[in-house]
Design goal:
- This protein has 125 residues and is mainly α.
- It has one domain (33-123).
- Helices cover 64% and strands 10% of the residues.
- It is built from five helices and three strands; from the N terminus they run βββααααα.
Length: 125
């Protein structure tokens, strides 16, 4: 038996694996972009809860760019929220200079709330 052959109708190449010929399939080439923590969280979410979306993105070769875009949007949203909340609540550089522990506590509170908002509105939807 031949190890490889190509179907003339479809143009698909097959390889002998044991007693069966299996198609030689490969995913389309995709430009690799770095994915941060937000993109990784969203990836975990769609793998577990939105399998059809995950499979469609993976097989179309768009998963990496989709996750990089989600990560970029989440970073921008997080930064904007932290800045807006800090301004609204009067957490300034002056407070940082006067009372560092109070500033750290308030900023940690603001960051935690911003993380919850980004997770709820963008990552786990």
């Amino acid at each position: 038996m031949k190890q490889h052959f190509t179907d003339e109708k479809t143009g698909i190449r097959y390889t002998l694996q044991g007693d069966y010929y299996l198609p030689d399939l490969a995913l389309p080439a995709e430009e690799q972009q770095p994915i941060g923590i937000w993109g990784q969280r969203h990836l975990r979410h769609i793998k577990q809860n939105q399998r059809v979306l995950y499979t469609n993105l993976l097989t179309s070769g768009k998963l990496n760019s989709y996750l990089a875009d989600i990560n970029r949007q989440a970073e921008e949203m997080f930064s904007r929220l932290v800045k807006q909340m800090a301004e609204r609540e009067g957490v300034t550089e002056q407070l940082k200079a006067d009372n560092q522990m109070a500033w750290v506590g308030r900023m940690n509170n603001i960051r935690s709330r911003a993380i919850e908002i980004v997770n709820n509105d963008l990552i786990y939807t």
